[in-house]
């Protein structure tokens, strides 16, 4: 059963408007997210995290030059789009987010989001559960999780009623074909160099 907008807002720590005001004034050393009615702090990523994002960005550019992987893209997610997540990468047509006002874009037209796990206490709940569910609720077709703890890529697809119906897991070094509408094949051997 899907909660009503009123139920969701009642459980929230603050309103979306209050969150957006707070996020505008956050220091540069963190970025804030608002998922499932809860405030989350996302710390500045480490160098290997950035290298993984750049690796995927280059893969996307080589295979699908008409698309762009937007790093740190703010998206309206969650049930009724009352959440705000900053994806490590959001894959969409080139210039897709141009013209949207503010830093939180509508997710419609986003083909894939990707997250790279961090080595902090919140990554399990944030990247593996809350953001996954928020992206599914927003109808984003593919969620790619680069799980550095497990040294795997986890691909979620086919969002349906706030959940991804399909989940596949691939060890670093595997050939991974991302499902439609992404349709990119990744050779992931390079990720072994970023394990640590």
Question: Brief description of this entry?
Answer:
The chain is of the alpha+beta class and 196 residues long. The chain has helices at residues 5-11, 16-24, 47-63, 123-137, and strands at residues 30-35, 38-43, 67-77, 83-93, 104-105, 112-116, 142-147, 152-160, 163-171, 175-177, 185-187.
Structure description:
With 196 residues, this protein is of the alpha+beta class. The chain has helices spanning 5-11, 16-24, 47-63, 123-137, and strands at residues 30-35, 38-43, 67-77, 83-93, 104-105, 112-116, 142-147, 152-160, 163-171, 175-177, 185-187. It contains four helices and eleven strands. The strands form three sheets. Strands 5-3-4-6-7-8-9 form a seven-stranded mixed β-sheet. A two-stranded antiparallel ribbon has the order 1-2. A two-stranded antiparallel ribbon has the order 10-11. The protein is globular. The termini are far apart.
Q: How many distinct domains?
A: 1
Helical proportion, percent range? 10-25%
Order of helices and strands: HHEEHEEEEHEEEEE
Shape: globular
| Class by alpha and beta content | alpha+beta
Q: Could you name the ranges where pLDDT drops below 50 across 5 or more consecutive residues?
A: 1-9
The Rg value, from CA coordinates, equals 16 Å
Head-to-tail CA distance between termini? 41 Å
The top level CATH class name: Alpha Beta
Q: Report the CATH superfamily.
A: tt1808, chain A
Largest sheet: 7 strands, mixed
Question: Strands across the major sheet, in which order?
Answer: 5-3-4-6-7-8-9
With helices defined by DSSP (H or I, 4 residues minimum), what is the helix count?
4
The percentage of residues in β strands lies in: 35-45%
